[in-house]
């Protein structure tokens, strides 16, 4: 049985909101970046060898292979380069800023020089994945298992309320693997330990998005197992996207689970025991805890220690803060979700049909299980899991000094501006020219 994590930080790819707002920039900036790549003999030589057949270097079709949200790219060659201005490149990605550090390694904000889009690049250290401090009872690496499942899961998920994986850069000659993820500029809908209650109308909007994303996962037989506000990211237009699939699980026939994963305060009562339990009701419980946090700014069940938290989850009665007034429909929904017995807990399809969520039928949400016949199966073959992680056959080569350099920009060096491309934005230096890129 895997060890129960006592604390999990929010996904660092969610961050990076400290850029200075600037004027709207023109698409010509990206063409200038691309032209500079062609003019720089070092960069041009590097990029000439990249496997990019059929992908235009200059901006033309916004739905090219690199920008298509439905086409995952896997690259087996990593080219690291530094231009004359000291800017670091990972293949065609310009490193803008270090966002933070996660369980696997660093996460960096990068600009795709080919199409001008921002991405959160998760840097995964192969050696760290096999750290002996993170082995289960069978001697297998817990972090490696989580990493492999995250990639295998993200490769097959395409939904507006789920963070997308765009590219995997996996060069067996390198010590690190790079996951190019959708950059969600708004960050977590709530910061850890800084929860502030939302107005009920806003909580309802967010909750609808989360339900749609989770319904898509469950329809494809994927259990998230770690829903919490820190894993719910917000786009610039206010859409919520579910992230962090490190402890997710795919079930084939039944969704029975025997191991506990996730964050203690968001675990369902049945997950606090050593007995087996069904996975979908556990996700539904965590969904209800998120909703409770949205409207009250605090947890429904808490304690000073993990055993205290588990005891409260299993035995404490649900209560509502008298200082915050909520509608009777919302109160009814919370009571239906946060039911101790998973057998009588409301299901996700029923949640999506609840009057509070549909505004008494004015804004219908149709569960996928009811819009089509049967549930789709997201099959993971052995090749899927094998291809999610490549083991180096030539040893773990130390990175060169150039590879270890981290280009960090001070606040104000970049001005944020939207350009007229689908989901695109870029960062333009305040000074003239492109010396700061």
Characterise the protein shown here.
- This protein folds into two domains: 12-184 and 389-429, Phosphorylase Kinase, domain 1, CATH 3.30.200.20; 200-242 and 253-371, Orthogonal Bundle (Transferase(Phosphotransferase), domain 1).
- It is 27% helix and 16% strand.
- The chain has helices at 28-39, 41-48, 126-129, 142-154, 200-219, 279-296, 306-315, 328-337, 348-351, 355-358, 368-371, 382-387, 401-404; strands at 20-21, 73-75, 80-82, 88-90, 93-101, 106-112, 118-125, 165-169, 176-182, 222-223, 232-234, 240-242, 249-250, 256-257, 277-278, 414-418, 425-429.
- The strands form five sheets. Strands 2-8-9-7-6-5-4-3 form an eight-stranded mixed beta sheet. It has a three-stranded mixed beta sheet with strand order 1-16-17, with no helix packed on it.
- A hairpin with a 2-residue loop joins β4 (88-90) and β5 (93-101).
- The chain starts with 19 loop residues before the first strand and ends in an 8-residue tail after the last strand.
